[in-house]
Design a protein that fits this description.
The complex is a heterodimer of chains A (432) and B (188). Chain A is mostly helical. Chain A contains 16 helices and two strands. Classes of the chains: A mainly alpha (432), B alpha+beta (188). The interface between A and B is medium-sized, with 30 and 23 residues.
């Protein structure tokens, strides 16, 4: 049904003419029209489409903002204020862009949560997952550089702290930081290159998103049971079923987004960033944007030298390591059962991991002193234990619940599932 | 193409035909060429000539009285210069370096003219600007500088005494061109 490049016979002669020469209409029909999609998606499956929406929103608002922004240390702050006060609708564009960044991360984090809970990273979707991690890394780089552009106090000092991380690299560290800065501190050359890269990277993200979706359309989507569709009774055509479901989810999301943009546009920002950058005065409490907080907590958790590795370098290694680990997740998790619904022991570890990340996020927002340091260290330790100890071992020892024989059997009221399920013996290595 | 290669291969010279050699040398030249071509792109991000031209700064200290301090910008970073009082110098010299987290004597830090403390005003922890240049600023428990970000205390020689900072405040390269005039950024 979904396979083969059989051209659709379109009624409109113009469409047919184009499609014979470049079959984009056939492709759209095949990949977004009749594309067989598991019938049992829940609302967590909306968040890929929502991420796409926010990427496009960020590019659209960003291109408009770039028409009014001046990337120079003398004028950047004033040009942003001019966008807020004088440019027609500039305040709206900027607030959409600012809050759009936060919402982009919210929906992407929920999208990742979905993938983790339902084991969407497992074979044959490893590459799909890894492309997602690449997108996540690119998003973080883009967001970091974008936050520098208004040239407020948090912009300047955030950029200083983060670029200084590279100075911990042995031998070449200082040369690398000078190269990143284009000078001897965060200054005009730094702002200019960050603007250039902040403009470029979203299009790189868009390119990787195309690969991410292409890989998705090879394997097909995972679903809440984690078992593959076995036939037409398990799937629905993407249109109209999931186009409608995604549209409904988008409407709900946009209501929440509008509440933030119109009634609390600065809720997720820092007041200090409305003070122009001043290299002579440090804000008393430098905090990154909320979406970096768990990683910031890991960075600061290392307060001691480990063997020959100084504390600062140790923190940097762990922070990057915490994301690099995600690339190896498909092989670290040895369980063949995808969905956490059928993993009675992993379920508890999964939620413990979620709480652990939330604790790290909270610790990242707090001053690193007293008991906070110890809590952040324990949470960091558990983060790595989860990936490097719990996931590899649990797949060997856990006895998963019996899997339904098909999606239809699992979700249809008269699928006759209960009796059969009791009959199916549960084995530790039950195949999905 | 592939077939041609197969036919041209001499079975007695396995893994090393003339064509393999040409492939490898061509690839090597290509890689070197690519590296050479990429270098101007990477190098364009290094400090430009006008940025490098500002790598030193002259500071006139003649107006500075005992106990006073000035902050100058050097390479985009604040440099603290303090005309220390005799008590501050005595205190800095009397410390046994063995007890310090980053052992250094005051004479090692300011060998030419101990009256002036010249340090980069960035905390070695995360790069905040410490307080203590103004007489009304908190100067921490050791009379030098206090970083409000994470509570590092520096003494009257700019050495770390307490708190998370790993190193003493950096002493920039500087030289006296006249009795009371220095160039920061130039070796003595």
């Amino acid at each position: 049904m979904a396979h083969g490049s059989s051209a659709v016979n379109f009624k409109n002669p113009a469409v047919r003419w184009v499609d014979r020469r470049l079959p984009i209409f056939s492709m759209m029909h095949r990949e977004y029209g009749e594309f067989p999609t598991p019938r049992n998606f829940n609302y967590l499956w909306n968040f890929g489409a929502l991420s796409m929406f926010f990427l496009i929103l960020m590019i659209a608002t960003g291109v408009m903002l770039a028409m009014h922004y001046t990337p120079s240390t003398d004028d950047a702050f004033a040009s942003v204020e001019r966008i807020m006060r004088d440019v027609n609708g500039g305040w709206l564009l900027r607030y959409l862009h600012m809050n759009g960044a936060s919402f982009f991360f919210i929906v992407v984090y929920i999208h990742m949560f979905r993938g983790l809970f339902y084991g969407s990273y497992k074979a044959p979707r490893e590459l799909l997952w890894m492309l997602g991690v690449v997108i996540f890394l690119l998003m973080m780089a883009t967001a970091f550089m974008g936050y520098v552009l208004p040239w407020g106090q948090m912009s300047y000092w955030g950029a200083t702290v983060i670029t200084n991380l590279f100075s911990t690299i042995p031998v070449a560290g200082d040369a690398i930081v000078t190269w990143l800065w284009g000078g001897f501190s965060v200054d005009n050359p730094t702002l200019n290159r960050f603007f250039s890269l902040h403009f470029l990277l979203p299009f790189v993200i868009l390119g990787v998103v195309v690969l991410h979706i292409a890989a998705l359309h090879v394997t097909g989507s995972n679903n809440p049971t984690g078992i593959e569709p076995k036939g037409p009774q398990d799937t629905l055509p993407f249109h109209p079923y999931y186009t409608m479901k995604d549209t409904f989810g988008l409407a709900v999301c946009l209501i929440l987004f509008s509440i933030m943009v119109f009634f609390a546009p600065n809720f997720m920002g820092h007041p200090d960033n409305y003070i122009p950058a001043n290299p002579l005065v440090t804000p008393s409490h430098i905090v990154p944007e909320w979406y970096f907080l768990p990683f910031y907590a890991i960075l600061r958790a290392v307060t001691f030298n480990f063997l020959f590795i100084p504390a600062e370098l140790g923190g940097v290694i762990l922070m990057f390591g915490s994301i690099i680990l995600l690339f190896f997740l498909p092989w670290l998790d040895t369980s063949k059962v995808r969905s956490t619904k059928y993993r009675p022991v992993y379920k508890w570890f999964f939620w413990l991991f979620v709480i652990d990340v939330l604790v790290l996020g909270y610790m990242g927002s707090q001053p690193a002193e007293g008991i906070n340091v110890l809590i952040a260290q324990l949470a960091t330790l558990y983060y790595f234990v989860h990936f490097l100890v719990v996931l590899p071992l649990l797949g060997k020892f856990e006895r998963p619940k019996p899997l339904p024989r098909s999606i239809a059997e699992a979700v249809l009221p008269r699928g006759g599932g209960a009796a059969d399920m009791a009959a199916a013996p549960a084995r530790p290595m039950d195949k999905a | 193409m592939a077939d041609t290669t197969e036919h041209g291969a001499d079975p007695e010279h396995e893994g090393g035909t003339r064509r393999d050699f040409l492939y490898l040398t061509t690839a090597a030249v290509g890689v070197v060429g690519l590296g050479v071509a990429v270098w101007p792109f990477i190098n364009s991000m290094n400090p430009a000539a006008d940025t490098l031209a500002l790598a030193t700064v002259d500071v006139d200290l003649s107006a500075l009285e005992v106990g006073q301090a000035i902050t100058v910008m050097w390479q985009g970073k604040p440099v603290f210069i303090r005309y220390r009082t005799p008590e501050e110098i005595t205190e800095a010299e009397s410390v046994d370096p063995a007890i310090l987290p980053d052992p250094q004597t005051d004479a090692e830090r300011f060998p030419v003219e101990p009256n002036y403390m010249v340090v980069v005003g960035l905390c070695t922890h995360l790069g905040c600007v410490p307080l203590g240049q103004k007489s009304t600023d908190p100067r921490g428990d050791y009379g030098g500088y206090f970083c409000p970000c994470h509570g590092s205390h520096y003494d009257t020689s700019g050495r770390i005494r307490q708190g998370p900072a790993p190193e003493n405040l950096l002493v920039p390269a500087y030289a006296f061109v006249e009795e009371r005039q220095i160039v920061i950024g130039e070796e003595a």
